[in-house]
Amino acid sequence: DGLTSDPMGVANAHHLVSVSVGPVPDTWRQAKRRGALSITVGMAARSDVARHRLGHMCAPTKVEIDSGGRMHMHLPRGPDWLDHDGMLVVRIDVKSSSVFGSGVQKQFKIWWHRSFLRRVDMEAGEERLCLSPWPDGPTDVLELDVAKAWIGGLHKDLQDHREVPAKFRLPALFPHA
């Protein structure tokens, strides 16, 4: 329900505006409070990935952590995407609080296809895992919501949950361009 894309038809222009991850570990929350958290978000078309390049990388304009431990990243306006599929990459660097520590880098990769983006109405009152970056922006958006088991970089953490909690998810919002 809510899947509205024709995988064989022409994709409407869309762009990534918001990504959330979480719940995040306490060490990430502490790192954000002390200014030791660095985040980069990128998208790449399939052709870029085949050439081992990321198409568009950016730093979030705003990062906030809600009471449930989800980290919400609002992104600057990036390029319009017309591709049906691609890769979404979230890179998180946690700098060590020790002069001897090197910190931790975690990278999450998700293959997405437009057919799996769900149309949502931001005004419908549903609780969203990904926050809209605009108070009065578009309300008709496409949402990608990926569970921990399908996120590249977390496949070895499905039993012990040492890196991130079991309920970790990565949702993203794509309004129409």
Question: Quick summary of this structure?
Answer:
The protein is mainly β. The protein has one domain: Immunoglobulin-like.
Walk me through this protein's architecture:
The protein is mainly beta and 177 residues long. It has one domain (18-175): Immunoglobulin-like. It is 7% helix and 36% strand. The protein has helices spanning 26-33, 46-50, and strands spanning 18-21, 37-45, 56-58, 62-65, 71-74, 85-94, 104-113, 118-121, 140-147, 169-175. The strands form 2 sheets. Strands 4-5-1-10-9-8 form a 6-stranded antiparallel beta sheet, with no helix packed on it. The protein has a 4-stranded antiparallel beta sheet with strand order 3-2-6-7. The model has no long low-confidence stretch (mean pLDDT 81).
